Amino acid sequence: CQVIVHDVNELTEKLFPIVEAMQKHFSAGMGTYYSDSIFFLSVAMHRIMPKEITRIIQVDLDLKYKANIRDLFDEFDNFPEGAVIGIAREMQPVYRHTFWQYRRENPQTKVGEPPPDGLPGFNSGVLLLNLEAMRQSKLYNQLLEPTMVQKLTEKYHFKGHLGDQDFFTMVGMEHPELFHVLDCTWNRQLCTWWRDHGYSDVFDQYFQCEGEVKIYHGNCNTPIPED
């Protein structure tokens, strides 16, 4: 087992020029804080990691594992042609809310609708980054360009505050083929904030998750069930 520690300041220095343009659209702070760049690490991981590293699993700290993480690594083998990132769906109607203006202008859209047929957006608590595929994907790298980010945020009237998750969600609305959707059991989110903030009528359509949970995600400081 080899452990390599990366310096956050060094990473941020490499990241900032790549993600600076998207920070103003997907950051909680006003404008572009240098330190906010680290919340976009996954977006540009393929640009800053050594070429010999071809696959990475990136996870949040508020997780509890009920299965062997090796089994999650096997999910890389299930990526369809053209997919570069494995990610689970967001399990709250947060993007139903964020895309309200686009949804109002496009009443037939699947954007922000619940699964299985809708596009509820993604949650970045568990990420499979196929760095080699990310490096080789012309489409993915075009989408990192400031002009493309601007174009999509204007099309979807998008203003978020969740960093990489917002970027992946917006790109997924336009180019779902770039993503391999992980089963909800690999990122069983527990936060219920949106149930009490205007969406109780539809909340359960987003929140339900069938199957044996492999990873619990205690997002928004939600307690994780004891064994």
TrEMBL record:
Keywords: Transferase. Pfam families: Glyco_transf_8. GO terms for biological process: protein O-linked glycosylation via N-acetyl-galactosamine. PANTHER family: XYLOSIDE XYLOSYLTRANSFERASE 1. Coiled coil: none annotated. GO terms for molecular function: xylosyl alpha-1,3-xylosyltransferase activity. This is XXLT1 xylosyltransferase. SUPFAM superfamilies: Nucleotide-diphospho-sugar transferases. One of its GO terms (cellular component) is endoplasmic reticulum membrane. It comes from Dryoscopus gambensis. InterPro entries: Glyco_trans_8, Nucleotide-diphossugar_trans, XXLT1. The keyword Phosphoprotein does not apply.
